[in-house]
Amino acid sequence: MAVIDAQGVYYRELNQRIKELLARGEREITLNNINGQRYIGDGLTEQAKLIINGTPGNDLAAFGNGAELVINGNGQDGIANTMNGGQIIIHGSVGDTLGYSMRGGEVYVKGDVGYRVGIHMKGYQDKQPLIIIGGTAGDFFGEYMAGGRMILLGLDRAEAQDIVGNYVGAGMHGGVIYIRGQVEDYQVGQEVKISGLDEDDRKELKGYLSGYCQEFDYDLEEVLNAEFCKLAPCSARPYGNLYAY
Amino acid sequence: MKGSRAEEKIMSGCAISGILNRKGNRFSGEEIIDSIALMHDRSNGLGGGFAAYGIYPEFKEQYAIHMFYDDLDAKEEVDYFLNRHFNIVVAEKIPTREVDKVSNPPIIWRYFATPNEQKLAESGLADDEYVAQSVMNINANYRGAFVVSSGKNMGVFKGVGYPEDIGEFYKLEEYEAYLWTAHGRFPTNTPGWWGGAHPFTLLDWSIVHNGEISSYGANKRYLEMFGYKCTMQTDTEAITYLFDLMLRKHKLSLESAVKAVAAPLWSQIERMEPKEKKIVTTIRTIYGNALLNGPFSIILGHKDGFLALNDRIKLRPLVVAEDKERTYVASEESAIREICPEPEKVWTPRGGEPVIGLLEGRRGV
Amino acid sequence: MSLDYKVPEFIIERDRDKCIDCQVCERQCANQVHIYDQDLEKMVAQDIDCVNCQRCVKLCPTNALTIRENPSEYKKNKNWTGNMIENIQKQAASGGILLTGMGNPTAKKIYWDHILLNASQVTNPSIDPLREPMELKTFLGRKPDQIEFDESGELKDLPPQLELDIPIMFGAMSFGSISINACKSLAQAASDLGLMYNTGEGGFHEDLYQHGERTIVQVASGRFGVHNEYLNAGAAVEIKVGQGAKPGIGGHLPGEKVGAEVSKTRMIPKGSDALSPAPHHDIYSIEDLRQLIYALKEATDYKKPVSVKIAAVHNVAAIATGIASAGADIIAIDGYRGGTGAAPTMIRDNVGIPVELALAAVDDRLRQEELRKNVSLVVSGSIRNSADIVKAIALGADAVYVASAALISLGCHMCQKCYTGKCNWGIATQRPELVKRLNPEVGAQRVKNLITGWSHEIKEILGGMGINALESLRGNRLMLRGIDLTDKELEILGIKHAGK
Ligand code: SF4
Ligand code: SF4
Predict the structure, then answer these.
(1) Is the terminal CB of chain C with fewer CB neighbours within 10 Å at N or C?
(2) pLDDT single digits (tens) B267-301
């Protein structure tokens, strides 16, 4: 296992060092004193593990495709941008636009997430991206969502705090969002239908959550033992009638 | 009215000639006048001029600034500027004589000066850059004033007329230089402006040039990005600045600069050794806009010698000759034989192949 | 539903003396205009469905067909033209957004046609390109200010460059908006000619990977088919911010065009709409663009130049300056006459500015900022012939993107119905029976022929100017003069009026 002290190291040099270590066959690298370095894990295809201590900069794991990243701290904006595979575990909260156009892999966030999370997330064949969020989410959650799964748990939140903002799933045309609790009609986009969970949904949810609960030491049954709602698109073709031919 | 700067691109054809004494022995202006005079029919009396290196040994530490002024007002303003920015050792009229065919000269003055230490320190510039910027400032912003030359221990003498008449006008037989270049001009239009004659200079660089460059518009706009102001609408000015940029500012070797202005063809580059290929490809990629396209032959004069070059597909003539002490270049062989009937060697360089004449012991200009 | 007031736009005339009722037209028309009437025992036509794509005309073995604009005219009115009235009728019937394809056809000034080129006479010689060297080679990518050596005196490597033998690239057209055979034709032609082909935002079909070295892969807001392998499969990456035909709007490939192959290439489920958001949701500001540029550079190990494509809009010069300083290696500017597979008519015809003016303004500004020597500039948005290219380069472009013209060489007849997916020429369609009408080998040859012809013409024009290397034309506006232009237009273009 290699260790890099990233104190004062610019991202370009840091990422080059990571790539060099990986090229030499290193499979686990701990990055200490990370603060703001961008693009950590960007485009990595290796099956490797990066342990990040600190606050990594924007576009963490952008275009990532296989690596596992553990962040002991909060993340910023643009995590898992266009990610194709791999796993990101964040022991804190993150900023906006998490998982933009993400196509594969998993992101577990212990805390809250910002605006436009899971925007234009897509699924394709065996690639079904998964984002699970322990806390709450801002507006435009799952905007344009075209595939994959997002699960929003809202655990440990203040009484008055909404689990999610407005315009949830605006333009959604694929994938599923599970929310532990209720959303009002006005909160969701008009392309979304809200329903309860059936048996299959519960089974699926349980499958997704078991890894998450293990990772963050939650009791799976307790987490499941609540009312969930399911958001799915009304149609895979939301704008079919928009045009005059 | 002394004529004025052109508003549009000046086109002209020409004759050029140059003589270098490689040992640094100085000789009078008579021979270069004879050489350029032989090619009388290549010019039309609308411009002639000479650059001479080594003529001011007693002031060799100072910049020799040759000036044209339309009137005394213009001179007064520039004097004020120069006095503020330079320590002037000598300021005097350049001696001339009456010549029938040379009329309407401007006020012709020269200064031997060094940058004012305090102003120089404030500017944070190197000596030569300070002078270069002052020159461009005068040329761009002082109406009725024009810097003819600004190098050390060298000077340019030019005007409207045939070159042999201009030489007589300036009494060039009284000067001794180790390097002379000369130019006779054939412009298609008639601005009749003394500043427009060749050589064109900046610091130690002087250029005489034959031909018209089709790439002028591209070269000019490229130079502007490096802070050069092409105010004269002439190819010669642009060529001078290109060399100044590459040789002085970017510290390219003369060979590399030649690869930019007369770049080898891509098909030739393709056939080069990998290392050379990389260098030339890099130069052409970065300095593409420095390529001089169209017919030209030039003599770039410098305190250490000269570079003579013609365009890469040889649309303009150039002949070189050598004897024991001297190297000659000219548009026509006869212009050399006129002053050196039996040179040891005479040859015509290939298109784009530089001819470099250096003082003994100097490694490059 | 009430009357929809539709009248045929085109009238089909069949010369009965020539028609042999062979039914070729019936088989050729995907709009099902021609029908063999069993009772009448002759061919009849339903004019109303004809889009005037000229397919039947060109394939009729006896030349029996003529398509004409419907001569029926509305009462003359310069304001309420027939077109305006019909658009309103269409919307009154459907409540939809007017949709169209291809570039802006309106009668606005085409500046290329008001610019004239120079040639040498006497003072410098013209050059005969058939017998003397004539160089069109062009490098796109970031250039340092000056040549650089490392401590040991070794020449430093240049940043990555795209090497073009001719300053032409095929503009972004996604697989999905055009057929795989059209993509193959363009990619093959680019490979053979030493040009670049651009994937557009539709991913990179596996059959095209062989042309990777001649491919620019695009990253648009929808990120379709974008992954690490994709980014590294091409020679350059282009961030598509905008497109001339529809600046500021996203894209929408309808689900019926998302068949098995498109689905696989875009990595989205079959039959689902492929929606491209209007903005990149990771770019809300210029510093975000920088962030994405460098995310892509990190993902490609700084081995690929990154281009940023924007639509020509009002403050394009300032935007381009920002893009250059954000680290883009190439800036591509798409003018408002650029083509598209589908765009709202009102946007296409009213948003954005002509590329000629945008180019002049951007080149000027980049020079003022002393950035032009570092960044490459590519323009598009209706480059129709070789003279347009020469003018573009003299105004200041490094190279051009050609798209509509390339499609025309493949058989497009500018019916502007690309969005219907029923392109009878096998170009803007995904229907297998139509796609196979375009043979990719024949297609590649036709595109190559076109570009070869153009490159000869460019060389002739350069030779006439007395220039034998393209870099001497680049930004050389002295080679241009305006005709029929106002002082303001001349000032923006940075050229003089003819006669001056
Ligand atoms: S749509 Fe095309 S093929 Fe069909 S009738 Fe009209 S011109 Fe002919
Ligand atoms: S690509 Fe096809 S549908 Fe589009 S304009 Fe051309 S011929 Fe018509």
Answers:
(1) N
(2) 999 999 999 999 999 999 999 999 998 888 899 99
> How many distinct structural domains can be found in chain C?
2
Among residues C384, C419, C341, C414, which one has the least CA distance to residue C55? C414
B13-17, B182-186, B325-329, C302-306: the lowest-pLDDT one = B13-17
pLDDT tens-digit map of C368-423 = 999 999 999 999 999 999 999 999 999 999 999 999 999 999 999 999 999 999 99
Do C52 and C133 fall into the same domain?
no
Task: Clarify whether residues C46 and C158 are in a common domain.
Answer: no
Burial of C54 per CB tally in 10 Å (0-12, 13-18, 19+): middle
Same domain, C128 and C277: yes
Asked if residue C168 and residue C23 are part of one domain, the reply reads: no
The answer to whether residues C78 and C221 belong to one domain is no
Residues of C within 8 A of B252 (CB-CB) are 146-147
The strand pairing partners of C164, in sequence order, are: C138
Separation CA C345–CA C91 (nearest Å):
12
Q: What are the structure tokens assigned to C9, written together?
A: 């736009």
Q: What is the DSSP letter of A124?
A: B
Range of C79's domain? 10-96
Q: What is the pLDDT of residues C111-169, one digit of tens each?
A: 999 999 999 887 777 888 878 889 999 999 999 999 998 888 889 999 999 999 999 99
Same domain, C129 and C88: no
Spell C313-339 as b/e; 16+ CB within 10 A means b.
beebbebbbbbbebbbbbbbbbbbbbb
All domains of chain A in start order, with CATH: 2-233 (2.160.20.60)
Task: Supply the CATH number for residue C394's domain.
Answer: 3.20.20.70
Which fold would CATH assign to domain B12-213+297-358? Glutamine Phosphoribosylpyrophosphate, subunit 1, domain 1 (3.60.20)
Among C231, C267, C269, the residue with its CB nearest the CB of A63 is C231
Which pLDDT score is estimated for A15? 95
pLDDT confidence of residue C1: 45
The per-residue pLDDT for range C193-205, each reduced to its tens digit, is: 999 999 999 899 9
> Quick one: average pLDDT of A130-153?
95
Closest Cα in chain C to B227: C370
What ipTM describes this predicted complex?
A: 0.84
Which chain A residue lies closest to C263 (C-alpha atoms)?
A124
- Pocket probe for ligand 2: among C412, C416, C419, C434, the residue whose CB has the most ligand atoms within 8 Å is C412
**Do C136 and C227 fall within a single domain?**
yes
CB C461 within 8 A of CB C117: yes
Pairing between β-strand A28-35 and β-strand A49-55 as defined by DSSP bridges: parallel
Q: Identify the residue whose C-alpha is closest to ligand 1 atom 4.
A: C29
pLDDT for the residue numbered B189: 55
- Which pTM does this prediction carry? 0.88
Domains of chain B, residue spans: 12-213+297-358
Output the residue whose Cα is nearest ligand 2's atom 2: C423
C284 and C343 inside one domain: yes
